[in-house]
TrEMBL record:
InterPro entries: Transposase_17, Transposase_17_sf. The gene is tnpA. Residues 18-137 form the Transposase IS200-like domain. It comes from the Bacteria. Pfam families: Y1_Tnp (PF01797). This is IS200/IS605 family transposase. NCBIfam families: transpos_IS200 (NF033573).
Length: 141
């Protein structure tokens, strides 16, 4: 009897695609101000809601006094740059509104997040393994 094939829960399927895409995102507050002494939990809640709206999943979230890390599982139809813009925009607007007195003292010029961010792809085989696999594929004659 052959072993039963078990589907990988990380691999998702759409109408015309099978995917397993993850990204590590890092956002830093403007001027590295120590904003997140008591707003980090609320920031996570907001970002989870934004991810749900984009049909993505926030797998992990954490941060320090001036930055946050997110691990996102997303479908190929989602442009990471648009997701990032929404994550940063919605969270900045709501956190400034809900934590006005606390946030104001750490931020300069009304900006919450730095204009830049880090995005890295994660998961899957290492690049060396992928390169070897592609090199070993037969070329058509």
């Amino acid at each position: 009897m052959s072993p039963r094939w078990e589907p990988n829960p990380e691999v998702r399927a759409g109408r015309h695609v099978v995917y397993d895409l993850h990204a590590h995102l890092v956002f830093v507050t403007k001027c590295r101000g120590g904003v997140f002494t008591d707003a980090l939990t609320r920031c996570e809640e907001i970002m989870r809601e934004v991810c749900t709206d984009f049909e993505t999943e926030l797998r992990e979230f954490n941060g320090g006094h001036d930055h946050v890390h997110l691990l996102i599982h997303y479908p190929p139809k989602v442009a990471l740059s648009k997701l990032v813009n929404s994550l940063k925009g919605v969270s900045a607007r709501l956190l400034r509104k809900e934590y006005t007195s606390h946030v104001h003292q750490y931020l300069w010029g009304g900006h919450f997040w730095s204009g830049s961010y880090f995005a890295g792809s994660v998961g899957g085989a290492p690049l060396t393994v992928l390169r070897q696999y592609i090199e070993q594929q037969q070329r058509p004659l």
